[in-house]
Amino acid sequence: MGDLAWQVLALLVLAAMVAGYVDAVVGGGGLVQLPSLLIALPFASPVEVLATNKLASALGVTVSAATYYRRVRPDPGTFVPLMLAAFLGSAGGASLASLIPKEAFSPIILVVLVGVGAYVLAKPTLGAETALRWQRRGHLVAAGGVGLVVGAYDGALGPGTGSFFVLALVGLVGYDFLTASANARLANWATNVAALLVFVPQGAVLWGVGLLMGVANILGSYVGARTAVARGAGFVRVFFVVVVAGFVVRIGGEVVGLWG
Predict the structure, then answer these.
(1) For this UniProt entry, which segments traverse the membrane (predicted)?
(2) Contact by Cβ (8 Å): 155, 51
(3) What is the mean pLDDT of residues 15-31?
(4) Which of 207, 209, 145 is nearest to 12 (CA)?
(5) Which of 89, 117, 123, 193 is 20 to 30 A off residue 51, Cα-Cα?
(6) Which of 19-23, 39-43, 245-249: highest mean pLDDT?
(7) Dist. CA 226–CA 257, nearest whole Å
(8) What is the pTM of this model?
(9) Measured distance CA(52)–CA(172) in Å, rounded
(10) How far apart are CA 43 and CA 201, in angstroms?
(11) Taking Cα atoms as reference points, which of 191, 98, 105 lies closest to residue 152?
């Protein structure tokens, strides 16, 4: 970290703070934080960038998950199987992270985001209130399936994971946006911990940068979680659409070469 200019560190801190806020409200903070690390750390390998991003995110999501848990009280029948499956999926995905080339990150994320945004816009009443589609065993299977698939993506790539958890819990399971965000934060905490258990023994984490960004991420996460809880599901839905649209424009421009 000592080799980085203070201006670069300041930008990383700002990016982590914004990422923490976005992640706490609708997920997707990694789409702010990961590109900033890729730009600031050109000397780092893809797995080092992913691991450092995971450390900063893990610190922030711990705070937002605790805030949501205290204020929303999500159902253990959802978040327990969701977290367990997400943990396993993330550990498996993280073991494959070193096989993914850095230049593949943006195209993969862009395709998924376009699909997510189109789906939400096509269903204006989606996530306005909770209407669960399954009960008992069916609900457990659905929650576990969401956790396993999205968790594997988080371990392998990461950016947008929280948003994908939210969308799956709203569109597939039937939660409103606020309750989905509460469950997503708990699942995201599990995926971050699982990935770090793989990355840390590999020596992939850049601790100085990760801890500095983690402190900033904590601040953003705390403010974001309290804002989401106070404003409710309607605010979370609108924020979700705006964030996804912004990321599609930014990443799409990068993919087609409009900017670096």
Answers:
(1) 78-97, 104-122, 138-157, 164-184, 204-223, 235-253
(2) no
(3) 89
(4) 209
(5) 117
(6) 19-23
(7) 37
(8) 0.87
(9) 31
(10) 20
(11) 191
How confident is residue 177, by pLDDT bands cut at 50, 70 and 90?
very high
Q: Token pair of 254, please? A: 């990068």
List the structure tokens of 131.
């209407």
Give 79-107 pLDDT, tens digit per residue: 999 999 999 998 888 888 767 776 777 78
Most confident range (mean pLDDT) of 22-26, 113-117, 221-225 is 221-225
What residue ranges do the domains of the chain occupy?
6-256
Q: For residue 217, what are the contacts with CB-CB under 8 A and spacing of at least 6?
A: 16, 17, 19, 20, 23, 29, 33, 56, 57, 59, 60
